[in-house]
Amino acid sequence: MTTERWLLLSGGVGGAKLALGLDRVLPPGALTVIANTGDDFRHLGLHVSPDLDTLVYTLGGLVNPETGWGRDGETWQFMNAVAELGGPDWFRLGDLDLAVHVERTRRLAAGETLTAVTAALGERHGLRTRILPMSDAPAPTRVRTANALLDFQDYFVRQRAEPVVTGFDYGGGAATPAVLAACAAPGLAGILIAPSNPWLSIAPVLAVPGLAAALRTSAAPIVAVSPIIAGAALKGPTAKIMRELGVEVSATGIAHYYRGVADGLVLDSADAAEATPVEAAGLRARTAPTVMRTLEDRCALARATLDFARSLRP
Ligand code: FO1
């Protein structure tokens, strides 16, 4: 019998929580994460890949539990020294985290792909899950506002997601051989979409030329987890962006967004009344507790999502 394989499309902090639950409840090697790299940018001369690093740190047990990004036990001497020199300190690279950016930049300059560099990082940290960048070529997300087109981290970190958005430009890139192989792997049982921000973290993945088509060639069901609970997002600007784009801030609004992409939506138990409108939008609905505070919560949501996807198999 072929082992069940699962794919997860994920952004950073929110998605990494579900990735950790899946990593713990599935057999080693059964999970592959396709990660957003639309947030990647060059900063202080270094190639920074926030979502890849957040996933590696989370699965490797190294993440700062307070921020959800960066490393636990981090120190900030480098950043403070940059600030003393009058350099840019709005995007904070900790001393431990810095090593990854320096090493990634060195290896990329030597001709390695982002996929290879990420695999090496995962191996060093003993991960049992593969993390694949959505693209090796740059595919930067840009944020459209009334007066400007903003680079992602300028919008998200420097301007604290305060500008009102009117839309997004996704950066292209190209589906990698590793991603295409993962989509075509024998035994692919399901494709899961993490409760990451659909516009900032998932759309950039689906916009990579060839990637959405590769997902669709597999017969595996596609199941998303709603990042909206009781009309609000637990963290981050998802609800604000939905309001700005004129999308209903609800699990049903998420279902409309994923119509034609996902076959099913996991919505929070608090939104059970929305199961009917979600199904009317064309997605099968399953309710489960989706708030992930503890490792137990993450594993429970992982199990519920896997069970739901298994029930949708053709
Ligand atoms: N987020 C912040 O709000 N402020 C920061 O200074 C910051 C630094 C940072 C450094 C490395 C890294 O991997 C992530 C970092 N993040 C920071 C988080 C990150 O920019 C965002 O959470 C993601 O890009 C959105 O998924």
Secondary structure topology:
Elements lengths: L4 E6 L2 H13 L5 E5 L5 E3 L2 E3 L1 H10 L17 H8 L10 H15 L4 H11 L5 E4 L8 E4 L3 E3 H7 L6 E5 L7 H7 L4 E6 L4 H9 L4 H7 L4 E4 L2 E2 L2 E2 L4 H7 L6 H8 L5 E5 L6 H6 L3 E5 L6 H17 L3
Parallel strand pairs: 1-2, 1-9, 2-5, 9-10, 10-13, 13-14
Antiparallel strand pairs: 3-4, 6-7, 6-8, 11-12
Helix pairs in contact: 1-2, 1-13, 4-5
Bound molecules: ligand FO1.
State the separation between the terminal residues, measured CA to CA. 18 Å
| CATH-scheme architecture | 3-Layer(aba) Sandwich
Largest sheet: 7 strands, parallel
Overall geometric form: globular
The total of beta strands comes to 14
Briefly note the CATH topology name. Rossmann fold
Bound molecules: ligand FO1
What is the helix tally? 13
Instruction: List low-pLDDT spans.
Output: none
Summed up, what is this model?
With 314 residues, this protein is an alpha/beta fold. The protein is built from 13 helices and 14 strands. Helix 1 packs parallel to helix 2, helix 1 packs across helix 13 (295-311) and helix 4 (95-109) packs across helix 5.
